[in-house]
Amino acid sequence: MDTKKLISEGYQLFAAGDLKGLLERYYDDADLINPESDYLPFAGSYHGKQQIAEYFTKLNETVQCVQLEPRSMVAEGDTVVVTGDSSWIARSTGIAYDNPFVHVFKLRDGKVVSQRAYYDTSKLEHALHPASTGQAGGKPLHH
Asked: Which end of the chain, N or C, is more open, meaning fewer C-beta atoms within 10 Å of its C-beta?
């Protein structure tokens, strides 16, 4: 099994908005783990395909993905680490922001057992809640 190819195809499914196809790549009891935040509607952990589907629904309701570009993938056994860049627009405010990410996938028999995401939560928090963070409304957050 080519683990990098499997993960690359998952990013393509996400970009195409194919949630059903994406979820088929996860085990029924898979885990998706995001950074914790009291200010993000999709923060925290999700267990099982139903909760993972809810995560992707919340994500889509909260932000619009403009770009999600994996830059490098390192595979070691059944672990794939992906680093990349992303650009988003907060749907509630229209504020655009860029956010590099790291995703760590654990695989078993060609399916995702767990996915852990690492990204700067403050960029998204600023985009969603500009008045409470001092960010001028509508001003893009690009670093």
From this structure: C
Q: What CATH number should be reported for the domain whose range is 3-129?
A: 3.10.450.50
Report the predicted TM-score, pTM, of the whole model to 2 decimal places: 0.87
Q: Which residue ranges in the chain fall short of pLDDT 70?
A: 1, 132-143
Sequence ranges of the domains in the chain: 3-129
Place of tokens 């860029």: 98
Closest CA to 15 of 67, 55, 82: 67
Round to whole Å and give the CA distance between 91 and 57. 13
DSSP strands (E only) in 1-143: 26-33, 45-47, 63-76, 79-90, 96-98, 101-108, 111-119
Cα separation, 17 vs 4, in Å, equals 20
3-state secondary structure 22-46: HHCCEEEEEEEECCCCCCCCCCCEE
